[in-house]
Amino acid sequence: MRSSRSAPDPLDPGPAGFAHRGLHNGSEFPENSLIAFAAALEKGAGIECDLRLTKDNEIVVFHDADARRMCASPLKIGASTAEELSRLKVGEHPIPTLTSLLTLVAGRVPLLLEIKVESNIWRWIRPLRDTLYDYGGAVGIMSFDPRIPRAVRTNMPEMRRGLVIRDGLSPWRRNLAIWHASPQFLAVDKKALANRWVAQARSVIPIYSWTIRTPDERAQAEVQADALIWEADGGPRN
Questions:
Q1: Fewer beta carbons under 10 A from the terminal one: N or C of the chain?
Q2: What CATH number matches the domain at 14-234, 3.40.5.50, 3.40.50.720, 1.10.565.10, 3.20.20.190?
Q3: Tens digits of per-residue pLDDT, 53-105?
Q4: At what angle do helices 171-181 and 147-155 cross, to 10 degrees?
């Protein structure tokens, strides 16, 4: 996919883009599950996923703040230990840990790790640093909260960092967040892609776009972004 900068993007997933929460499809391939990540690997797609921190500072791959939707359990991720959460199932498998994801991927495709922040922002860096220390593959850490990429810049300067931006964020809030985060890439809501500020940012750093779900959305985003975060019918045609 076209890039507007002379320097290559270390996270470039190629035309396959990033599979949003893995290549998931219903209960057989649930979102953020090892089987969905394995399916993305078979397609050669990069992987985007969500990370949460347990009560005892373990990193699990999970989107929601609690386990009701995915596991039919009232347990809250941030208030539960890793051992408690290991008893739950996502489909037929346990909730993945970041370690299990890294073991599965083993550097074969780039990873976009979205940090879901609660009131635990200052607890994140040590578990991230410890878990990713020996991993040799391409990894980008991103969050809606600009304090995460800021902390990554300070404490893990070798790690690629990004900011996730919703459409409709006021210009001053957006500019303040970008200034504070000092990101090396932006993950931008697809509804914001046509805005001038996106093109201006793209002249300096890569722009990824989420979540692409249809061929029409893909056709537009391929022109306005450097890599797509997709699911359903928004995937590559081949």
A1: C
A2: 3.20.20.190
A3: 999 999 999 999 999 999 999 999 999 999 999 999 998 999 999 999 999 99
A4: 20
